[in-house]
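A.,

Following up on our hallway conversation. Structure tokens first:
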């Protein structure tokens, strides 16, 4: 068997998979696919395989080149008929003046059934073909539960079949690491290849198929219309995941967390990359909570040939894991992130070295400084009240104390406020002085006399939007011009902010911190300033503001 590399000039084709129910429905879906910029359609005729004249018409009238697939139930599809029925349907697909671009046949069926194999070989292009045709054969293998143990044997069998023009393997990703194996399979380039991972963890293989030069990737026309788990829609692929901008040099970023499915960060960062003309793509990267998962996955991605994994936003529950990982790999960690004990940003420098920092506290500092019309230096002498003593409060207390503000912590559980204050009080500040952080009981909030109040509790967050961490009579007593910042951003205007505004305070909504921490990450990755105002609008519109 020859294992020479084939070279490909063709772009990875965006292929809308359509479950065929009727000729009219399928043609209408194909027309919409063409309109939305797809290159190819896959007609899944699993449940339409007996209407032979309609199959011929479907291929003939399709506005886009087509793949004909009749997936049997034993390989995750819906076809329950026999081989004779499939043969008749494939023949019908090739009977009209226009032929399908490809027939997709499962490797196992092709190996097992001589009549099917002979019939398919008569219909597709291969070295021994006597009736010239452009239709190519995709031999495919799917595993909806895991990575098959004999994946490479299956690939070898596809490579060895002379009539097989394209090999396709698809399996349920066990973790993000499986994507890297899919990339390697494409990269070997012995034959045009489709290598995809299914499920949420498999999304990178679907999007980055274009970066690695896979023959095609499958998308759904609409949400819920997909033919396999994890297929994005054509619209998401084109706009959210920057399909048209992807190429072999594209740098890869993402949000690492668990869960990350509803994160706004992919929309935010991809829009930023778009606006800056930066050759990057940003993906949701779900990794289970334990450090071992984090370490193994991030290490595999960093080491993957040709992937250009250059950074990540890191969120719950991995903020501590990021610090540990970067230190173990001999990278650099921003000192204040170390003191906070959490970092949210990974930067992979051009020389491959790692850097971790925390853009959360920096975003909070700058949001408040802007509201006060001062620079960070001006924080010295300011008195800042922080409500809460959890993870969010910790980063903010550390940041303000580091820049010389006096920080007073109020928390429902007073002991936690005392603990947090103790930890950061007397820490070194940027000016070489020592930080001043104290705890005060919640009842004393009414006479705290601070210039700034920052809510770092979850009180007021959707769905409990009628709550506020500050009693209304306390908010009423705030002096006009007092700055009130709520880290809660669902809803955009919390009850706390509403009441503060009514008292004449200057309010800072939580999306300000989200936008700024993200913009800071983008700047660190791209070296360019992202369009903050446009990103602010994007976040506000996604939050319904
Ligand atoms: P995060 O990482 O978002 O800060 P966290 O570490 O769980 O989350 O901290 C949540 C903070 O919100 C805590 O300060 C918590 O107060 P306790 O330390 O007393 O638990 C505060 N919080 C949560 N629900 C609250 C409520 N209903 N009233 C007052 N404070 C509340």
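Then the amino acids I'd put at each of the 545 positions:
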């Amino acid at each position: 068997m020859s294992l020479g590399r084939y070279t490909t000039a063709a772009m990875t084709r965006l292929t809308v998979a359509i479950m065929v129910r009727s000729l009219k429905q399928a043609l209408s879906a194909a027309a919409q696919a063409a309109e939305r910029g797809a290159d190819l359609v896959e007609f899944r005729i699993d449940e339409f395989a007996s209407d032979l004249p309609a199959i011929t018409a479907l291929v003939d009238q399709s506005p886009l080149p087509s793949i004909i697939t009749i997936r049997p139930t034993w390989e995750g599809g819906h076809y329950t008929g026999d081989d004779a029925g499939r043969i008749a349907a494939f023949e019908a697909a090739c009977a009209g003046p226009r032929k399908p671009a490809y027939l997709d046949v499962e490797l196992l069926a092709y190996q097992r059934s001589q009549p099917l194999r002979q019939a398919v070989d008569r219909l597709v292009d291969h070295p021994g073909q006597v009736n010239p045709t452009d239709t190519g054969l995709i031999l495919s293998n799917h595993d909806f539960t895991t990575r098959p143990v004999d994946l490479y044997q299956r690939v070898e069998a596809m490579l060895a079949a002379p009539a097989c023009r394209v090999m396709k393997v698809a399996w349920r990703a066990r973790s993000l690491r499986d994507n890297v194996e899919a990339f390697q399979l494409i990269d070997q380039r012995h034959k045009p290849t489709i290598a995809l991972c299914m499920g949420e963890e498999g999304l990178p293989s679907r999007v980055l198929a274009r970066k690695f030069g896979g023959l095609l990737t499958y998308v759904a026309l609409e949400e819920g219309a997909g033919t396999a788990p994890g297929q994005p829609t054509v619209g998401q692929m084109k706009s959210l995941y920057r399909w048209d901008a992807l190429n072999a040099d594209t740098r890869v970023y993402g949000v690492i967390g668990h869960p990350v499915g509803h994160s706004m960060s992919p929309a935010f960062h991809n829009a930023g990359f778009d606006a800056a003309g930066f050759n990057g793509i940003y993906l949701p990267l779900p990794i289970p909570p334990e450090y071992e998962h984090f370490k193994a996955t991030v290490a595999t991605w960093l080491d993957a040939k040709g992937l250009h994994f250059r950074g990540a936003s890191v969120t719950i529950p991995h903020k501590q894991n990021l610090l540990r990982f970067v230190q173990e790999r001999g990278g650099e960690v921003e000192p204040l992130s170390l003191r906070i004990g959490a970092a949210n940003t990974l930067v992979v420098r051009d020389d491959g070295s790692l850097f971790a920092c925390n853009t959360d506290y920096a975003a909070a500092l700058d949001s408040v400084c802007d509201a006060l019309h001062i620079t960070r230096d001006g924080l010295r002498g300011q008195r800042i009240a922080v409500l809460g003593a959890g993870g969010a409060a910790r980063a903010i207390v550390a940041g303000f104390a580091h820049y010389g503000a006096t920080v007073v912590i109020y928390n429902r559980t007073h002991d936690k406020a005392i603990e947090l204050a103790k930890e950061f009080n007397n820490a070194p500040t940027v000016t070489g002085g020592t930080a001043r952080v104290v705890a005060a009981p919640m009842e004393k909030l009414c006479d705290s006399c601070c210039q700034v109040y920052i809510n770092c509790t979850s009180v007021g967050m959707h769905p409990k939007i009628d709550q506020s961490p500050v009693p209304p009579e306390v908010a009423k007593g705030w002096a006009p011009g007092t700055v009130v910042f709520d880290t809660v951003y669902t809803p955009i205007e919390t009850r706390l902010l509403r009441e503060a505004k009514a008292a004449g305070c200057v309010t800072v909504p939580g999306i300000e911190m989200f936008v700024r921490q993200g913009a800071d990450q983008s700047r660190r990755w791209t070296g360019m300033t992202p369009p903050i105002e446009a990103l602010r609008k994007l976040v506000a519109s996604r939050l319904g503001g």
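Residues 151 and 307 are 22 Å apart (CA to CA). Curious whether your intuition agrees with the design.

B.
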